[in-house]
Design goal:
7-stranded mixed sheet, Pectate Lyase C-like, elongated, transmembrane, DUF2807 domain-containing protein, transmembrane helix, 2 domains, alpha/beta, membrane
């Protein structure tokens, strides 16, 4: 093979490798978006298996061994008035935010069976392993799910709500 062809093939291979690395970095940056720039503080929580949310919240769900609710620092003062656990359901009520921006939460639990969200709530769920999950979204709420192992999923949406399910076969 001529030297010019070898150089061209080497250059093309390096260019493709750089493109793939750049796309992987961009994807990892996009996955981290819900947490960028926010400092979280832990708020005490009882055990729960379902979540009911009303209002303009941005929530990242994580599967962990213990139940934990972490709230964005600026919302900590009002959090005790806005959430409670009743019969295994973590209930988060609507907040009055003068800037009309979503307040951010990180919720950890070993198991979530049901999610009920309304009025502009955004939920990001990544890496959950569960037998079943029931999702109900209303009034401009969204649910983004990535890399979850769910045996049975029931989905109900209304009022301009949407769901995005992502499965990456490379993982």
């Amino acid at each position: 093979m001529k030297t010019s062809k070898k150089i061209l093939l080497t250059f093309t291979g390096v260019l493709i490798a750089l493109l793939i690395c750049g796309m992987m970095l961009l994807r990892s940056d996009l996955e981290a978006l819900p947490n960028i720039g926010y400092e979280y503080e832990t708020v005490s929580s009882n055990q729960f298996h379902s979540i009911k949310v009303d209002g303009n919240w941005s929530i990242k769900l994580r599967q962990r061994a213990q139940h934990k609710v972490e709230v964005e620092g600026r919302a900590k003062d009002i959090m005790n008035k806005l959430f409670k656990v009743d019969n295994g359901v973590l209930m988060i009520t609507k907040h009055e935010n003068p800037e009309n921006q979503a307040l951010h939460l990180r919720i950890s639990s070993p198991l979530i069976n049901k999610i009920d969200a309304s009025n502009g709530t955004e939920i990001y769920m990544d890496g959950f392993d569960s037998d079943s999950l029931e999702i109900r979204l209303e009034n401009n709420s969204s649910f983004i799910s990535s890399e979850n192992m769910l045996e049975k999923t029931t989905i109900e949406t209304s009022g301009n709500s949407w769901i995005q399910l992502i499965d990456d076969p490379m993982k």
